[in-house]
Amino acid sequence: MQAFDFGVALERIQARDEAAFAELWRRHHPMLLRYLRVIVADAAEDVASETWIAVVRALPRFVGDEQNFRSWLITIARNRAMDYGRGRQRQSVVLQSADELDENPAPTPDPAVLVVETLSAHEAVDLVTRTLPPLQAEAVILRSVLGLDVKEVARIMDKRTGTIRVLSHRGLRRLEQTFAERRAVQHG
Amino acid sequence: MTRPASGSVQIGDLSVSTASPDVVLLLQHAAAPPHDEEYREQAAAVAAFVAASTDPGAAPEAPVPDNPAAQVPAPQRAASVRGIRVAAAGLLASVVLGGGLAAADVLPAPAQRFVSSVLGSVGIPVPSPDDRSSAERPAPSPSPVDNEIPAGPEQSATGVGSPSGLPEAPGRPLPGAGTPATDDPARGSSRLTPSGAAEQPRPTSRGAGTATGGSSRSTPHSSNAQKGNGAAVGKPGTSAHPGATGKQQGSGRAKATSRNPPGQSKQASKAPAKSHAR
Predict the structure, then answer these.
(1) Do A77 and A105 belong together in one domain?
(2) Is the pLDDT of residue B128 over 90?
(3) Looking at the complex, does the CB of residue B34 fall below 8 Å from at least one CB of chain A?
């Protein structure tokens, strides 16, 4: 199987090659969907569809490598998610300052139901989302699941890089704490 | 998936060295390879791509979402509200700007007339060009001598004096307006000087009769200082005034050679006093 070359694929896509687009879509859609599950939960597929439509419109003018494309894709998705959140008058996308995060923790799931080994990808993402405050969950997923670096995450979330580091660190600490509490409960 | 040992584990770009094995496992699950279920929208995405490629001008329609709440066109509504605000701000700015210009009486006559009538109907007085043509044009400050001389048609040619011949109240000059020169036939004829020509009494014009004034503040001095007949020829460059370039003949024909730039009026008002003292 031939390795994926983003530059070649982009040229083919800009020449209206459906197969190349499908290949690009298959490489990025699953992670996009997981990210959107963090910020819009049940509307992730709808927002992902709108995101790809926006991408299709703008792709003929896109210039950059695959890393740039991924950041661009996530940025579009986040904007669409925020529009969706405004439309729903819901706080699915909560923009809080880093200082407020510890004051508004998300409800902690019952540790008794946590069986990490059997989780699917979506269940794992949902667990992160339910365990962490929104911005921490978003930062952790962008960093660990999508593999974006701190600068890219900062740009996407419109935060400073230091804030992203703090969010990621606090998120991991909170996850650790949750699992530690779970083990303490299990061991009686 | 096997349970990882705690320690430094790299997940993507993130080092979770301090995280517990459960956290590492959780994140590994979250970043697991895609499942077939995640590809079920591929056909719709490719169809959108094909539609956009076939007719780039026509935006592909978004698939109708299962969730009706997702159909709320929030961005469109926001754009609409934004447009209304921009239009209202533009209208307000144009009204304020137009009103200000009209109040300053600097609009072209038709526009000034229109604004005057519109605002006058709501009780806001705005000068009309009709008023301007009949009475409002102020005349330059006359010196005692000036009042003896009827304004001639030449005066209006300067654009400074009163076309209607109405004398301006002494001491109330128009900014930058020219000063009527002495017009005593015995001393030489007078003409309104060009606007702010800022002619000064010059050392070479001793006894000469015609003077042209700078601002009306200097009028009394100018007229007194330059009594007499003969010609006063101002040499360009000899004046204290950079802008004074006029050549005035004692016969009374003062030619408008320059306009007084703003800021020269003060100079003009000081210099004649010196001349008078001499």
Answers:
(1) no
(2) no
(3) yes
Does residue A1 form part of some domain? Answer: no
Q: Do B16 and A172 touch (CB under 8 A)?
A: yes
- Let me know whether A24 and A79 are in one domain: yes
Kindly give, in sequence order, each residue whose CB lies less than 8 Å from that of residue A104, ignoring residues fewer than 6 positions away: A96, A133
Distance, CA of B88 to CA of B20 (rounded, Å): 58
Joined tokens for residue B10: 């790299």
Asked if the model's pLDDT at residue A63 lies above 50, the reply is: yes
Does residue B102 register a pLDDT over 90? no
A52 and B CB contact within 8 Å: yes
For residues B22 and B5, the answer to whether their CB atoms sit within 8 Å is no
Same domain membership, residue A124 and residue A56: no
Residue A173, classified by CB atoms within 10 Å of its CB into exposed (0-12), middle (13-18) or buried (19+), is middle
Q: How many CB atoms lie within 10 A of CB A51?
A: 24
pLDDT at B9 over 60: no
Do A129 and A72 share a structural domain?
no
Tell me if B52 and A48 make a contact (CB, 8 A cut-off): no
Q: Residue B253 has what pLDDT? A: 44
Tell me the whole-structure pTM to 2 decimals.
0.49
Give B-chain residues touching A29 at CB under 8 angstroms: 34, 38-39, 41-42, 45
**A104 and A67, same structural domain?**
no
In terms of domains, do A182 and A103 share one? yes
Note the pLDDT of residue A78: 95
Number of domain units in chain A: 2
Radius of gyration from C-alpha coordinates of chain A? 18
Pairwise CA distance, residues B95 & B38, whole Å: 57
Q: Where does chain B have alpha helices with state H? A: 21-30, 42-54, 74-103, 109-121, 129-131, 153-158, 219-225, 265-277
Name the residue range of residue A23's domain.
Answer: 6-87
Please answer yes or no on whether A22 and B46 come within 8 Å at the CB atom. Answer: yes
Task: Express each pLDDT in A165-177 by its tens digit.
Answer: 999 989 988 998 8
- Cβ <8 Å between A49 and B62: yes
ipTM for the predicted complex comes to: 0.81
Whether chain A has a CB inside 8 Å of the CB on B36: the answer is no
Domain boundary among A24, A55, A87: A87
Q: How many CA atoms lie within 13 A of B277 on its CB side?
A: 5
Q: How confident is the model at residue A38 (pLDDT cuts 50, 70, 90)?
A: very high
Nearest-by-Cβ selection for A119 from B29, B38, B67: B29
